Amino acid sequence: MQIPRHFTKKNTGPYSGIDFRTISSEIRDPDGTIVFSHENIEVPSEWSQVACDVLAQKYFRKAGIPIYTKKVEENDVPSWLWRSMPDEKKLAKLSKQKQYRGEHTAKEVFHRLSGTWTYWGWKAGYFDTENDALAYYEEMLHMLCKQMCAPNSPQWFNTGLNWAYGIQGPPQGHWFVDPESAEMKPSTSAYERPQPHACFIQSVADDLVNQGGIMDLWTREARVFKYGSGTGSNFSSIRGDSEELSGGGQSSGLMSFLKIGDRAAGAIKSGGTTRRAAKMVILDADHPDIEEFVDWKVNEEQKVAALVTGAKITRRHLTSIFDLASDQSIGGTDVEKNKSLRKAIRLARADNVVEAVIVRVLDLVEQGLGQLDFAEFDLDWQGEAYQSVSGQNSNNSIRVTAEFLDAVRRDDSWDLTRRTDGNVSRTIRAKDLWSKVALAAWQSADPGVQYDSTINEWHTSPAGGRINGSNPCSEYMFLDDTACNLASLNLASFYDTTTKEFDIEGYEHGIRLWTIVLEISVLMAQFPSEAIARRSYDYRTLGLGYANLGALLMQKGVPYDSPEALAMSGTLTAIMTGCSYATSAEMAEELGPFPSFEENREPMLKVMRNHRRAARGAVDGYEELSVLPVPLNAEENPDADLATAAVRAWDLALDRGEAFGYRNAQVSVIAPTGTIGLVMDCDTTGIEPDFALVKFKKLAGGGYFKIINRMVPVALHNMGYDDDEIKAMISYATGYGSLKDAPGINHKTLAGKGFSDDVIALIEDVLGEAFDIKFVFNKWTLGETFCKETLGFSDDQLEDVSFDMLKALGFSKAEIEAANTHVCGAMTLEGAPNMAEKHLPVFDCANPCGRIGKRFLSVDSHIRMMAASQPFISGAISKTINMPNAATVEDCMEAYMLSWRLGIKANALYRDGSKLSQPLSAALVDEEDLAGDMEEAVAASPSTVRAEIVAERIVERFVAERLRPPHRRKGYTQKATVGGHKVYLRTGEYEDGRLSEIFIDMHKEGAAFRSLMNNFAIAISIGLQYGVPLEEFVEAFTFTRFDPSGTVTGNDTIKMSTSILDYIFRELAVSYLGRNDLAHVEPKDLLPDAMGQGAKEGNLPASAGDTLEAVQKVASRGYLRKLLVIDGAKAGSRNVQAAVATEVVAEPLPQAVGAQVTPREEISQSMQAISTEVMEKVDRQMDQAREARMKGYEGDPCGECGNFTLVRNGTCMKCNTCGATSGCS
Q1: Between 373 and 599, whose confidence is greater?
Q2: pTM of the model
Q3: What average pLDDT does the segment 442-470 reach?
Q4: Is 473 annotated in the active site?
Q5: What pairing do the DSSP bridges indicate for beta strands 704-708 and 694-698?
Q6: Phi and psi of 352, rounded to 5°?
Q7: Which of 473, 579, 1201, 1215 is catalytic?
Q8: Which residues, 6 or more positions from 379, have their beta carbon under 8 angstroms from its beta carbon?
């Protein structure tokens, strides 16, 4: 092949005009501990510190490189391309400690990558002349150095270690196909042939221990993980739970084996680092265990919640019991003498602390134990709680066919089939399964959905079998036991901000060169199994993609969700895949098509014709497609030349393919580009929009500074704003970093509080890095002596992590917020001076930006962007479809359906707050502010006045004995969603059906709010058991107004509420008081005859009497209100005594028979202790998580460096500090 030059010139060198600099690289965890350090590394001058850190930490070979090497002469290879090996004679003169080193310059890495590709390409005849090979080598060096493209991480890890340095290692069980003889051979070295492929799809048979079976898969996966790659498998061939075994027993089911594989993956550190293994688990929708699979992660996260909550509650109670039992002055462990201990035990029992644990603590005290050690857990994704459950080491997806989705639309039944004989295991309602999938994704962001029919209708090689699986990120979809190596072009690097033109010729040239890179990588690779080696040789699949689309659109001033953006995305994708297939056909002309092309010739050309029809904008005429693609709309493309190039590329690809075939069965995917996106200094990854306008850029000497997205000034300039206006906008977003002229809190007001010039100077020194000014005003910045002696704060105040010094100094909330925005910036352009409203859509991100940002991209915009590109991709797209916290389960189902109707191959939803380990964006306020807001809301409500009057009436009317419910009592659980927030209401009843207690759980809300609601329920329950009429609570709390509020789903009778309390007491009033006036749907509307099913069918007998009284003892009155069973039934008498109490009664109150006597003062003390605990601040880690969320990050700590700088990255996560990623690219 001929290789023309586009970026370099002959005899000038690949780095002509490029400057390099020497820097140090250092990565620290949040507490300042050095995680990684590398001194004196040489990097291109234009690279950011983050890009340099990723290169040094991730991609530099740290050891094993010989100090002295020599060239290995090969007669058929140009001398400049000879490989190297250790010079043993020279090395022998050095001590062993000095014989080897690590890489220390970016040029070494560029050389070993480009040189290895050129070496293998030359050996296999890919270049016509030596000049072509040299041009190829130097063009690749230049593009790597200029961050124009990058291969997937395994290439950086493994490629060239043998060619450049002669590194050897024992074989690891890999295989390859000899390209000359087509024979399968085992690898004899770990490094001579690298494992450059990031993505694998592996088959698994319904066999326990034989090759290709379940246990063998874990070994094959380990081999993939070790070299930094990821793998996916479809487990639908495994028989379901209780299916027969050959020995006569029954299978333990698929889930038991998935949990084993999950544990194995979690124990392996991918690429030999602390990066977690990347894995995909897929199951077909007709598998007998599909429902258990869908709920897998949901149930495991509920276990985590139970562990965290239970451990904290248990520790609190056990600590109290231990301390009281250890105090001999009040009776020690004698519960008869030690009344405080007795009370503590009673409170522990009330919170369901295990009796045996309580007894064990008392026994240990009696044995002289000095201190109690009881472990607590947290919601850290890397913590013990998550480590103790399964399902955390893979992405999960289900495969749905067009038949299943049609059954959902028609509300038909759906058969689950046995794997052993193909018979129907059981039949379920298709819509029920679909709702379960949406609910699971809403709760835990898994499973994703893969559209099987769409995938296989675009299959280029159906003669080899169906496409069943994908890689972990869902962009590579092909036959089982195949592999794909990825590379991504940096779109922004081809755009000239001066001329405002996109370098189409350079883009096409880069596509051609990198298609050759990926093809050569197939040639030189080794594979983890014979099957993968054979099929990779037979089909030669590639994965070329791009990154930085969002940044390109922004700098061109095109909103991400506009028709122009969709047209540009589709056009750029069409050019990429069209040129890549044209290059593949060009290679086929010289080297032959892939071995399995002839048997797949007609299906592949059919797919190529469909691609070309979409590129030409055709709305019909597609061949054998049940869902039509979204075609290009050239009229909406702001760059007409791009649209012309797209059609030209596909005309050439099809013409050449019909004449010569193709060298590769697939050529393109859109990968997440996580770590490699950081190496290329991309502002956005893959096809994603930006996640935040303001970034925290790392400084070489440590620390960070805020910087606006690099594309924002370019876009503002193109919109016509002048330099002064742009400067003001950027300062508004990033802040001024000084209190000098700040509103509310400034040098003058601080001086008035006693701050000297020296102390103010200390504050100014650290404001530049501050995310919030409250983090600056502490004893570490100001000095403990100044805080205590001048400001007058106590040690307790200064040690309290919840202490707000600015508030304590007398500054109001409004003054603090105004100063905060001035100093730290709004982190958004919303509200920026001179900013035109019509331009704001250009800067919309996946999430609201900063504290005050309200704008963000809609769910549909993500889906439509994928749909615009999907018709021009061989594989699929790895992209997160971001959803706000307020999104409903119905929204999830609609997103799935829209994805299918628009021809997308896979969909991964991520709703904000769907992970326990991540705080809600909607809850990013101080706990104190939250409490204050609630107080203000309650104070402003007329019902609050009624509540206070009712409380006084309750005290004056009753001095009641407490009637406790039986230990085994009936009741019901009502699940509903109020304003997007899930609420579980659980009731307990007396035998006569009266309400005795309630429990409230706000699913996955912040710790303080959940605890507050829980303890509110305890207070209501105690009131009910002391005889407070339910009617009084209903009158007090219905129509209260505060968030969450709004539409109610999941409840038959209540469809709207003004607050959580309004909803709860409406539900209780309808269920226990017959207050249908508080319902929106009357119970009679829920009867069978109301649905046209007959006047009397389904109605229960109307007779009450003795039968009804017997039913009340075993059936929940509240639950049966829907069937009108006991509406109006007689109520049991309340065992209360009327009296007047104008002061607290210290004497024990009369109680129900057999109940323990609890003095009222003890109740008051215990409630006060609970209230204090509820209002305590969350720990430091949660503060870090919240701060991270406000910065635009996810709120989870990085598993490798510990920093809270993880962002969504396709269907994966990446760390913007160290470059770690949960994906495989």
Answers
A1: 599
A2: 0.76
A3: 95
A4: yes
A5: antiparallel
A6: 65, 30
A7: 473
A8: 304, 308, 385, 386, 916, 917
